[in-house]
Amino acid sequence: MENKTLAERIAQERLNKSQAQPRSLRQLGRNPESINFDLQVQRNLRWTDLQVSELIESIILGFPIPPVYTVKSDDNITWCIDGKQRIKRAIIPFMRDEIAIVENFRPVFGVDISGLTFSQLPPEFQEILEEERIVFYQFDKIEPHQIEEMFKRLNSGTPLTRIELIRSILGAEILDWFDTITVKKLFSMMSNMTEAAKEKFYDQEILLQICGILNGDYAKQGGKALEALALDLRINGISDELKTQVVEVIDYLAEGFSNYEEKEQRRLLKKNDVVALCKASAVAIKYGVDPKEFAGLTGSVIVKNGPYKATKIGGTTSEPKVRKRVELLVESLSINESEDKTGQLEMEV
Asked: Does 174 lie in the same domain as 125?
């Protein structure tokens, strides 16, 4: 057996890929036969029409698209190792008007693209798509077992959690602002706000929910609705008015609950409670309710068995339950208010 140095083994056996070779979507649409997608290791075309539509949306919005990996065979055929769903199932047929955006799809930059093919899109969107470039990496001299191993490794990564996906949607500018808010005192007072929870961006998820409810988006508190809220904020930004209000209610709550013992703070300031308290405190601030008085009144509602606790059993982020929590908290403020003022407070919610 021939003895080789480590450097020789690396030079001979290590996989080498080409430099990045960007291809425009225009090129891919015009030359669909330039890549062969029939490697045995590849999965069948599994993407739904919705997934195709979301990829096209991502490109228009400017989100990065993962690279495609190929290998060139001895007979000069370019075979796709990874990227079949993105290229063959989505990009090529869409650019050739063979598939349309699904019906009832969300607007993009305020434009309804539901049911539209590429050629039916606004010229501005067509230009973005045609000029978009996807990076291709090509491997040479690769064995079949190496192709299988590469495909397995490329597709075995840990999928993004929902909050990780939401963070990628929000973008750096909004996340930088989030970082200035989540260091505030209220977040250290909250239940289960451990370092481990912060590493999972638990605090940022709550802050996003607070932004939503202060905007009146009672329905955008969980699941896909929270992703939609993140996308809306990414496109339209967070207004200075909303930023000011977020800071105001968070500082108000921190002051109001600061006299409670740490154990009692943890009991009162759980995730769903804090989000509802933020909305209720916006009303309280407007009508001059003292922060500590607010904490006493709303705290009594939170710990009492009854309608409020019932909203925290099953489907806690559903619109009716979120709205009911806020209504009950605001109603508690009417104890020391005039009848006329009570009516005004209820209308605010």
From this structure: no
CB 218 within 8 A of CB 323: yes
Phi-psi region of 277 (alpha: psi -120 to 50; beta: other; left: phi over 0): alpha
- Please name the residue ranges forming H helices in the chain: 6-13, 25-30, 49-61, 84, 92-95, 123-131, 144-154, 162-170, 172-181, 185-189, 195-199, 202-214, 223-236, 240-256, 262-268, 271-286, 291-303, 307-310, 319-332, 339-348
Are residues 332 and 187 both part of a single domain? yes
C-alpha dihedral sign at 230, 233, 236, 237? negative
Residue finishing a domain among 120, 154, 188: 154
Q: What is the pTM (predicted TM-score) of this model?
A: 0.58
Question: Dihedral angle at the C-alpha atoms of 335, 341, 345, 348, nearest 10 degrees?
Answer: 180
| Strand pairing report for 68-72 and 133-139 | parallel
Same domain, 62 and 140: yes
Last residue of a domain, one of 129, 154, 179: 154
Q: Is the Cβ–Cβ distance between 205 and 169 less than 8 Å?
A: no
Same domain, residue pair 167 and 103: no
pLDDT digits (tens, 9 = 90+) for 282-324: 999 999 999 999 999 999 999 988 899 999 888 788 889 999 9
Residue with tokens 């989030």: 178
What is the extent of the structural domain holding 99? 13-154
